[in-house]
Amino acid sequence: MAQRYLWIWLLCLQTCLEAEGSDTDVFTVIGILGESVTFPLNIEKSQQVVNIVWNSETSVAFVMPGDSGTAPKVTVTHQNYNDRINVSRKNYNLEISNLRMEDSGIYKADINTKTLEGMITTTRRYSLQVFRRLGKPKITQSLMTSVNSTCNVTLTCSVEEEEENVTYSWSPPGEAGNVVRIFWTPDNQELTYTCTAWNPVSNSSDSISAQQLCAGSFLKPFSKNSDAISKKTIYTYVMVTRDAPPAEGRIYDEIPQSKVS
């Protein structure tokens, strides 16, 4: 009976030691598509590492200390990571190179160390997020109205391969979001409107001048004609985009014109 209780006590002791070595925090690691990222292990010099097991959605690598003064022995355990894994000789930090979007996800390192009490497993968890470097954003515009020397324009900013965690800001007027409406007059024709797109690894900007926005809008106001068939007044306006020629549109007045006898 005494021997049975001894085994139970030893099992509890081992469980407690492993629990003390566990780290439930998840560290966020940001990577850039096509570049490298490092997972820091924070292993102290006094720790005697036996091996380190890396896993994600698949197995990743198995690491053992090298002979005295040599690099660690690294066995890549999944083909997705072939020729992309490197382990620091100094502190066992793991590096993944030539990052892919599909590398994003949760990674776990089980660090097995030897102590006077026996083997202890310390677990580190990481959330890897991979982002593209943003290219130059594109600004498109539409001329809404031109009344009383005021040009009302809506600007839309976008980037290629739109993805999560992309934010936009405008200067002026300092508003957030990829769409902004401005009211422009000839008095501020020297203004330049700039859109900046951001993500966790990069930012990029594009600008458009006020003269481009409302070019000709005050020289050629809305044209006014009459429709011989409907007997209504027709107001012609122009829709403008930065990368396309102006397109004509029409607004019909609902009040019929009186016939001329």
TrEMBL record:
PROSITE patterns: IG_LIKE. It comes from Leptonychotes weddellii. Residues 137-209 form the Ig-like domain. Residues 1-19 form the signal peptide. It is a single-pass type I membrane protein. The keyword Membrane applies. One of its GO terms (cellular component) is external side of plasma membrane. This is SLAM family member 5 isoform X2. Keywords: Adaptive immunity, Disulfide bond, Glycoprotein, Immunity, Immunoglobulin domain, Innate immunity, Membrane, Signal, Transmembrane, Transmembrane helix. SUPFAM superfamilies: Immunoglobulin. GO terms for biological process: adaptive immune response; innate immune response; negative regulation of interleukin-6 production; positive regulation of monocyte chemotactic protein-1 production; positive regulation of tumor necrosis factor production; regulation of macrophage activation; T cell activation. Coiled coil: none annotated. It is found in: Membrane. CDD domains: Ig_SLAM-like_N.
